[in-house]
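Q: Here's a chain of 217 amino acids. Please give me its 3D structure as tokens.
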Amino acid sequence: MSIDFFKILGNLSSFIVIIPLLLSITKFKSLNTIQIRLLHLLILVFIVESISNILWRKKINNLPVYHFFTVIQFLLIINIYREVLSYIYSKSFFIIIGIGFIIFAIINTVFLQNLYTFNSNATTVLGVLVVFFSLSYFYVLLKEAKYSPLENNPMFWINSGFLIYFSSSLILFYINNSMFKGSTEASYLVWGLHAVVNIVLMIFYTVAIAVKPDKQF
């Protein structure tokens, strides 16, 4: 596959967020709490992708944007999980995790990976934590005494998207960093696969917004 194809795939991955975002706006009055929290994340992704692409086209290093994005993204993801995981984790648990991640991200940026370097350390920790939250949510579903149809549960779709995206990203980033250093064609392949996984995540987001939930969370 040509490099041009991967560039097109990357552009599609960047702006496909517009679909669930527009759907969220048109359905705003009927969204429940979880869907509104997802909307906050969609707005952040849209803003970051827009700024990142503008900087890239102007040949300005856009990596500093992702240092800030990683922290804000994690806090918004915690906000999505804190209610649905309140059965097994206390409010203080999420506060400690959130503050701990912010401190780690700052230390990483100041001492290990500066603003003009890809913050792979923080991104990896983010991925591990979100996979942990995702598996915890599936555990909560299994422990529920009352059966409810999952296809109408926005959190089920969000959580499934998170698990697929972040677990896949961890593997892809590891492969790129450990096996394909300096190999441009192989790196394009890895980032192309990452773009595909991101598109899948946006499809899950779209379904999460489209469904009509049976309850508040």
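Q: Can you summarize the key feature?
A: The chain has a mean pLDDT of 89.
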